[in-house]
Amino acid sequence: MIKIGNIQLPDFPLLLAPMEDVSDPPFRAVCKDKGADLMYTEFISSEGLIRDAIKSRKKLDIFEYEKPVGIQIFGGDEESLSLAAKIVDVTNPDLLDINFGCPVKKVALKGAGAGVLKDVDLMVRLTAAVVRSTNLPVTVKTRLGWDDNTRNIEEVAERLQDVGIKALAIHGRTRTQMYKGEADWSLIGKVKNNSRIQIPIFGNGDIDSPEKALLYKNRYGIDGIMIGRAAIGYPWIFNEIKHFFKTGEHLPSPTVEDRVQVARKHLHFSVDWKGPVVGINEMRRHYANYLKGLPNIKEYRTKLVTLTQVEEIDEVLDQVINAYSGYAFEKTPIELINYHEKCPV
């Protein structure tokens, strides 16, 4: 059993990464259904929370079925992060996570997200300020370092543990790498195997198949895996990994009916939570991923991303089921989608 503060997780939990414009309640709902053990909100600006910005406040919405669930905040100022932590406390999540990993310019170059990796002393001060300001377990999500010359994650892990964080998730790239190249898990393994480290260490980056998940689990000894891009349009990956760990065998690929059913649930929750206009518009980014691999799907996909009424979209989804009934998907590694501009982890 893995513990984060008072939160009890399975022996090797699978975490859904916080992804901007992706990890909202509708998306989290389908991932929870398919085996995610711990999930996080989209990252929320500490400044936005303090200003009472509507978009930031909306991201605080969490639901009982999601638990355990963490709220993730970011910022580069001690006072702002402290105040944001107090606001988060009121919403009663299971934990509070600090984002020190987002590499996009609008965040990192303003001294927040991965930008804090250039100043470890500041990172420690910010983290300590949040720990002092909340009764929730505080965790951190970060990267190996700012660039190849500052891959300082071992020092970061020790110092953040010393000021009170209860778990650390590490993405196996530096900030300057963004999402390019292959994630390097060797330093994640070194952190986990550091005799000073007593908190759970979760690895993140490029996990796109049950085989890779098992290989990295055994090779690096981490306490769990955080999955981001591979779950977009394919939440089944969580249960597939769990089944492979237990049996060494693959679950059958989800059928067309399975994919449409989950896409439909995602759509309806999105509309219920965001309203019909925003809910339908923001759902459009997901259809291509749910229907990936179907031949000659462009006609249906075009309709799905242009229609404006739920009833019409439901009708097209029914047409997809009828047109592709019995279609057998090949079991292939999931293609990781690049959302460089969105900051997926």
Short description, anyone?
With 345 residues, this protein is α/β, with parallel strands linked by helices. Helices cover 42% and strands 13% of the residues. The protein is built from 14 helices and 11 strands.
**Assigned CATH class of the largest domain:** Alpha Beta
> Low-confidence parts, pLDDT < 50 over ≥5 residues?
none
Fraction of residues in helices? 40-55%
CATH superfamily of the largest domain: Aldolase class I
Give the strand content: 5-15%
Shape type: globular
CATH architecture title of the largest domain: Alpha-Beta Barrel
Chain-averaged pLDDT = 91
Task: Sum up the structure in keywords.
two-stranded antiparallel sheet, 345 residues, TIM Barrel, 13% strand, alpha/beta, 2 domains, single chain, Non-ribosomal Peptide Synthetase Peptidyl Carrier Protein, Chain A
Can you put this structure into words, describing what you see?
The protein is α/β, with parallel strands linked by helices and 345 residues long. It has two domains: 2-247, Alpha-Beta Barrel (TIM Barrel), CATH 3.20.20.70; 256-324, Non-ribosomal Peptide Synthetase Peptidyl Carrier Protein, Chain A (Orthogonal Bundle). It has 14 helices and eleven strands. The strands form two sheets. It has an eight-stranded parallel barrel with strand order 3-4-6-7-8-9-10-11, surrounded by five helices. Strands 1-2 form a two-stranded antiparallel sheet. A hairpin with a 2-residue loop joins β1 (2-4) and β2. α11 (256-274) runs antiparallel to α14. It is globular, with a radius of gyration of 20 Å. The relative contact order is 0.13. The model has no long low-confidence stretch (mean pLDDT 91).
